[in-house]
Specification:
The structure holds three protein chains of three kinds.
Chain A lengths: L1 H15 L4 E7 L6 H21 L7 E7 L4 H13 L4 E4 L3 H14 L3 E3 L17 E3 L4 H14 L4 E7 L2 H16 L3 E8 L7 H9 L4 E5 L6 H9 L5 E4 L6 H7 L7 E4 L15 H15 L6 H23 L6 H13 L4 E2 L4 E2 L11 H4 L1 E6 L2 E7 L2
Parallel strand pairs in A: 1-2, 1-3, 3-4, 4-5, 6-7, 6-8, 8-9
Antiparallel strand pairs in A: 10-13, 11-12, 13-14
Chain B lengths: L10 H5 L3 H26 L7 H18 L4 H23 L6 H19 L1 H4 L5 E2 L5 E2 L2 E2 L3 H23 L2 H11 L1 H5 L5 H27 L1 E2 L6 H14 L4 H26 L6 H15 L5 H5 L27 E12 L2 E12 L3 E5 L6 H9 L6 E6 L2 E2 L5 H6 L2 E3 L12 H6 L10 H6 L3 H18 L14 H14 L4 E5 L7 H16 L3 E5 L3 H7 L2 E6 L2 E6 L1 H6 L1 H13 L1
Helix pairs in contact in B: 2-7, 2-10, 2-11, 2-12, 3-4, 3-10, 4-10, 8-10, 11-12, 12-13, 19-20
Chain C lengths: L2 H32 L6 H16 L5 H17 L5 H17 L3 H24 L7 H23 L13 E3 L2 E2 H23 L1 H11 L1 H6 L4 H27 L6 H14 L5 H21 L4 H7 L1 H11 L6
Antiparallel strand pairs in C: 1-2
The chains are: A alpha/beta, B alpha/beta, C mainly alpha.
């Protein structure tokens, strides 16, 4: 029954779009990472509409097959295998680090290129036999931690406290931030954890305040990042408060209100695109994305996470065009996938919303710190560009 | 017949053109193992666990650490994984299986949450929430099991072995004892089952099975992180088991297959139905589960099973077990009760009762309501602990021993309301009696090494059924018996157990006159064969016609003892009963 | 640790504890009367403030449609005169929502009534047809509903948190907001009201009797389904008020309810799922314990809170020692 339905579905779709190029997408549209995954999903839905209108890539229709992994490793792996079998030319996703790591053996075994939308450096480093197939678009925690620590040093911060999610996100930040801070001579005086679902972080905040750090970094994503900050304010903490780029969405400002005034955070330059100097390389591309996204989903709806998905497509599209010239995807899918991978790796100076991508055999992140991170401050309930690193 | 399960191994061949279905097949096999571990725990032993995913995690992390950090072979990882799951089960089981009722499942939630947090925060050891990557594939005689196709043979092969082993377990004395324990721990204990030990063993077995699934999971994904071993995952497995039908092996397997497929099915169907991409899978999942539970509270399998032909097992033909037949000089004292005393919160229920029970006699313990007869009975049978006094069986002190120890010495009891296991056959009910006369342990039962002993046990039970005249009903479910037949079945179960001293608690309650007469003549003929009977009842007609001697109690004390005729004339007895008649 | 930190932690623990306490009482009540462990109580709790936010922005929340659909199913299942209550209730609820858009006092009322209606309808549609099922089957049903309601919550309200304005702003003393005082007051009031209800009202007494003994309750003239509806109604009412009062302090989101419910559940177990006062004290204990562990070992907080259960379970299990007959 089920296979019959799938067959029908596939048949129907292929009749509609003769030889559409299928691109697999795995995102966390539900579960703990939904706040990041939904804008990613929206971006692909928007892209699908655009491509349907404009006729796809190099005369070929493109079809995104989007599957939700519910922020769960097992689901992500299942989805990936399913996509591989449906004959996708590449897999984009997924939102979270552990699930992306779980997908690596699958794409490596099937020899399908993959562009992850998750943060950790572990996904693309070191580039070994398996990671040969894996790229990613978001800045690593390492890169963003560098921005934060540079900003802290510039402001004369000597001691710093960390409070982050008790999950892969908070753990990744703790690891790379603490390493970078130590390297630059900052002292991390206390490292606390809380859960996304916690209703109170009084205990952690009291412990932080007792150590009197110059600054506090909150390693959390979405609106749950507000709670520690508000509690710090209520306990009259007067030092600097840093957030991560995981909060760069409008809901954070809405829920945080005046409690998050003055927050400092590193972000991809797209967050403050219109404030960027006109010479900034990514400005035009970023404004283009924002305008398209807001046209579909409403003014002020864009977040930086959807832009990671957009960047993945910006990388994939020219690579597809080049690969299509070399290999016929309908004749030899395996060869096409391998060629596509090579062409992705051959990407040079590709201007995207979050930075300029240049991949190489050793570097599957491809971002330069100078273009990919800016410091932003919350001012009057809006994101305000604080500094660039160019 | 049961070897048809090996046909599952053909599935990878059939599905080989569809690699994705091979993936699903592997996930089905993994889920099926976990739900089978729940079958052992919930279906057989009546315990509920919210920590199966934690046991999986033990298996998965053990092999991940050994293979990644120490570079050892996955097969060593398997050994370590099973060992760690076993150790965890031993630790948790020792601490928790004695918990009663819903305290046990709730405590498993606690363990599950705590272990998940540990796995996520011991970053140096477990890789934290991010996890451990690059597990090696399993090699089998030089073949690398690195594709879904090859892996499916391993998982399905192990799954089929597991299914067969669990069928063996279900058909063995252990399986019967577990089922009995689930229904009624006291009744099970009265046939020699040590509830705590048996439950602990079931818990261990269940933990090891889940650990095996965890090992296979780790080498299939070749990546481990804590989320697949979370409370949510444990709940998911429990849902599969219950919705499929946790009481049977095909039931839990059906649940695993249904819900493994359902998730993907919903991914295909919902966009078609709703015409748009959305996040409706979990909603559909929850609602379908609700629907199943409303329409089939016992799970899907009982609905399917109705349409399947039932299998006739046939009557056992093996040589019965050699039980010690009740012999010894008639009239020798077999049970000695001295100065028994028991109070419940200040109320003296039994105040120093003494009497002897002699071989071959039928002794009746009677008295008005609240006289302390049942309490005395339970003190003798070991269901209650006396405050003072002694009980000796064949000269051995048994005071304060648990029922399962007393039973082993040759004393059996029945219950006021027949404690039978209605979903088992009459034969199996009777065979429960042979528990303490048979030896096979968990391992032998699982491996099917106890078949011969099992056949003899069933033959023994069948012989006992013949003795009480129930042999024609041997293969029926016990729920189809009339009250009178249930009483007879209880006697048959005692006979199959090899007990020589039979303690009967109001055995004639609810019987019709004709049934009572037959029952009485059965007891008399048993007594002639050398069985000794202690009977508690109010039914004066029955007692006066049946008993050789009578002990009368009132207000917790023995007020008279002697032949029925003498006792009837005793003014104290008359006063006690007259008092009651006035009330009635 | 100095006295200030200690007092802050105690206040924090108290505020969390009373909320767990109210949830624990609801869970104990529902369990005692219906044998259902009401896992989705956390979702019901969150639906109240989220629906409120939607109303205040002038939108009709998806929960309204959910409630009306379940109410419709309830009416169909009840038929005859029994269908009057869900139909009238549903129409009334719908009208109230139309009136309550952007009208704060009405919106609060509407949010509470919505959750109560939803709670009772949940019982009638999903649990009542399962009467006589095992506790395990009922629990699995509750889990299924939790999953479905959480999924619906995401569809209705999106993945992010919302923060309705507090009813009272500002702090009484450092560490205790006026809103926090409201939560404490509400908890005290509900405790008193529940006590009076069970102690003095005929229906309350009958409800307790129903929990003890179904047959006895029938003799007292209370039908088990009525008792179930009232138990679910009271539980939803407590959950709705708790949600509305808490949301400004903790931020409401579709995913926030489950953990709250689970902690309430821990407390309920500490009370043996039977004793109301012990469950409430257990909840306070959980609150304090959580507060202190988040100070001393925040990464392991959840693990420690749940392990607190184990000795308590042992104690309870020993106490519950009876002849298993």
């Amino acid at each position: 029954m089920k296979r019959w339905l799938v067959a029908l579905l596939v048949l129907g779709l292929s009749a509609m779009a003769q030889e559409a190029l299928k691109v697999g997408v795995v995102v966390s549209a539900t579960g703990p990472a939904a706040s990041l995954g939904i804008p990613e999903q929206n971006t692909f839905l928007m892209l699908q509409e655009m491509l349907d209108r404009t006729g796809g890539v190099a005369g070929r229709k493109v079809q995104f097959v989007i599957l939700d992994d519910a922020s769960d490793t097992t689901q992500a792996v299942r989805n990936t295998r399913r996509l591989v079998e449906e004959g996708v030319v590449a897999v984009i996703g997924t939102t979270t680090t552990p699930a992306s790591l779980g997908m690596i053996p699958v794409v490596a075994e099937a020899k399908v290129p993959m562009i992850s939308l998750a943060a950790s450096k572990d996904i693309i480093y070191p580039v070994d036999a398996q990671r040969h197939w894996v790229f990613k678009t978001p800045q690593t925690e390492e890169l963003m931690a560098r921005a934060i620590v540079a900003d802290m040093v510039a402001r004369g911060v000597k001691t710093v406290a960390y409070i982050g999610f008790n999950d892969a996100y908070g753990e990744g930040w703790a690891r790379f931030f603490e390493a970078e801070a130590k390297a630059k001579g900052l002292q991390v005086v206390v490292s606390e954890r809380y859960a996304r679902t916690d209703t109170s972080v009084t205990g952690q905040v009291l412990r932080i305040i007792a150590r009197r750090p110059d600054a506090v970094l909150v390693g959390a994503s979405g609106t749950p990042a507000v709670l520690p900050q508000r509690t710090l304010k209520e306990r009259a903490y007067a030092g600097l408060i840093y957030q991560t780029h995981g909060v760069a969405n409008p809901d954070f400002l809405r829920v945080g209100g005046k409690d998050v005034e003055g927050t400092l955070l590193p972000a991809g330059p797209i967050l403050v695109a219109e404030q960027l100097p006109s010479a900034y390389p990514t400005k035009r591309v970023a404004l283009d994305y924002i305008q398209r996204y807001e046209a579909k989903y409403g003014i002020g709806s864009y977040s930086t996470f959807g832009a990671h998905a957009w960047d993945a497509w910006l990388i994939l599209k020219p690579a597809l065009e080049r690969a299509l010239k070399r290999v016929d995807s309908a004749k030899d899918l395996a060869a096409f996938r391998a060629t596509l991978r090579d062409e992705i790796e051959a990407t040079r100076n590709l201007v995207a919303t979050h930075g300029v991508f240049t991949f190489s055999k050793e570097d599957h992140l491809g971002l330069r710190f100078e273009d990919a991170a800016v410091m932003v401050r919350v001012e009057n309930g809006r994101w305000k560009l604080e500094r660039t690193f160019r | 017949m049961r070897y048809l399960w090996f046909l599952l191994l053909l599935l990878p061949l059939a599905l080989s053109p569809f690699p994705y279905y091979l993936t699903l097949l592997n996930f089905f096999a993994l889920s099926a193992m976990v739900v089978l571990s729940l079958y052992v725990l919930t279906g057989l032993a009546g315990m509920t666990s919210f920590a199966q995913a934690a046991f999986m995690g033990m298996g998965a992390y053990a092999t991940a650490l050994l293979t990644i950090k120490a570079g050892l072979s996955p097969w060593l990882g398997l050994g370590a994984g099973l060992l760690f799951a076993l150790l965890l089960a031993l630790l948790l089981g020792a601490l928790t299986v004695r918990l009663k009722g819903h305290f046990l499942p709730l405590s498993t939630i606690a363990w599950q949450v705590a272990l998940y947090i540990l796995a996520g925060n011991l970053v140096g050891l477990t890789g934290g929430h991010t996890g451990l990557t690059d597990l090696p594939p399993i090699h089998f005689f030089g073949i690398s099991l690195d594709t879904g196709f090859r892996y499916a043979f391993l998982t399905l092969f192990l799954l089929v072995l597991l299914v067969l082993a669990l069928y063996n377990l279900r058909q063995s004395r252990i399986g019967r004892a577990l089922l009995a324990l689930r229904g009624d721990a006291l009744a099970a204990a009265s046939f020699g089952v040590d509830p705590a030990v048996l439950r602990l063993k079931a818990f261990l077995l269940s933990g090891v099975i889940a650990g095996l699934a965890g090992f296979l999971y780790a080498h299939f994904l070749r990546f481990v992180n804590p989320t697949p071993f979370s409370l949510e995952a444990s709940i998911k497995y429990l849902v599969m088991a219950v919705a499929g039908g946790v009481g049977s092996i095909p039931g839990v397997m059906l649940g695993a297959a249904f819900f493994t497929g359902l998730e993907d099915w919903l991914k295909d169907l919902l966009p078609l139905l709703l015409g748009r991409q959305g996040n409706y899978e979990t909603i559909g999942y929850g609602l379908i589960l609700a629907l199943i539970l409303i329409l089939a509270p016992k799970g899907l399998w009982p609905l399917v099973e109705r349409y399947l032909p039932s299998r006739d097992l046939g009557v056992p033909k093996a040589e019965p077990l050699s039980l010690k037949s009740p012999d010894g000089p008639r009239g020798e004292v077999v049970l000695e009760v001295q100065g028994l005393q028991k109070s419940f919160g200040g109320l003296l229920a039994v105040a120093g009762v003494s009497f002897d029970l002699r071989r071959g006699e039928i002794l009746a313990l009677i008295g008005p309501n609240g006289a302390g007869k049942s309490t005395t009975f339970n003190l003798v049978a070991g269901a209650l602990l006396p405050d003072r006094g002694q009980v000796r069986l064949f000269g051995k002190e048994i005071t304060g021993l648990p029922p399962y120890r007393i039973h082993a010495l040759g004393l059996g009891r029945t219950f006021q309301h027949p404690h039978l296991f209605l979903e088992l056959t009459v034969l199996e009910n009777a065979a429960l009696g042979t528990y303490s006369r048979t030896r096979a342990g968990f391992l032998q039962a699982l491996l099917g090494l106890s078949r011969r002993e099992e056949e003899r046990a069933l033959a023994t039970a069948y012989r006992a059924l013949k003795r009480v005249g129930l042999e024609s009903l041997a293969l029926e479910k016990a729920e189809r018996l009339s009250v009178g037949q249930q009483r007879l079945l209880e006697i048959a179960r005692l006979l199959a157990s090899g007990a020589e001293v039979l303690l009967l608690d109001e055995p004639a309650a609810g019987l019709r006159a004709q049934e009572k007469r037959e029952f009485a003549s059965l007891l008399r003929s048993l007594a002639r064969e050398g069985y000794t009977v202690l009977i508690v009842d109010h039914d004066m007609d029955l007692i006066m016609g049946l008993a050789d001697r009578v002990v009368v109690m009132n207000y917790g004390e023995k007020i008279a003892e002697g032949a029925p005729k003498e006792v009837q004339r005793n003014p104290l007895v008359r006063a006690a009963y007259l008092g009651e008649e006035e009330v009635a | 640790m100095d006295a200030t930190i200690l007092s802050f932690l105690l206040l924090d623990g108290l505020q969390n504890g009373v909320v767990y306490g109210l949830l624990a009482l609801s869970l104990v009540l529902v369990f005692a009367v219906t044998r259902v462990i009401l896992v989705p109580i956390g979702e019901l709790l969150m639906f109240a403030p989220l629906s409120l936010v939607w109303l205040l922005e002038g939108k009709l929340p998806g929960t309204l449609w959910l409630a009306l659909v379940l109410g419709g199913a309830w009416a169909l299942m009840a038929r005859g005169r029994g269908a009057l209550l869900p139909l009238v209730g549903g129409v009334g609820l719908f009208l109230l929502f139309l009136l309550a858009k952007e009208v704060p006092p009405l919106a609060y009322l509407a949010a509470v009534l919505l959750v109560v209606y939803l709670g009772v309808a949940t019982y009638r549609v999903f649990f009542q047809p399962m009467r006589g099922a095992t506790v395990l089957s009922l629990l699995i049903m509750a889990v299924g509903l939790h999953v479905a309601y959480q999924g619906l919550g995401l569809v209705f309200f999106g993945p992010e948190q919302f923060r309705p304005a507090p009813l009272l702003s500002g702090e009484v003393v450092v560490g205790l907001s006026w809103q926090g005082v409201l939560v404490l007051l509400f908890a005290a009031l509900s405790l008193m009201a529940l006590y009076l209800f069970f102690r003095f009202s005929l229906f309350g007494k009958a409800l307790l009797a129903a929990a003890e003994n179904r047959l006895g309750a029938r003799l007292l003239g209370i039908r088990p389904e009525e008792a179930g509806m009232v138990a679910f109604g009271i539980a939803s009412l407590l959950a709705a008020f708790s949600g509305l009062l808490l949301a400004p302090l903790i931020n409401a989101a579709y995913f926030m309810g489950f953990m709250l419910g689970l902690k309430g559940f821990v407390a309920a177990i500490l009370g043996g799922l039977a004793s109301y006062p012990v469950a409430f004290l257990g909840a306070l204990l959980v609150g304090f314990f959580e507060s202190f562990t988040s100070f001393y070992a925040s990464a392991y907080k959840e693990a420690l809170v749940f392990l607190l259960l184990v000795p308590a379970l042992f104690y309870q299990s020993l106490r519950a020692r009876t002849v298993e007959e």
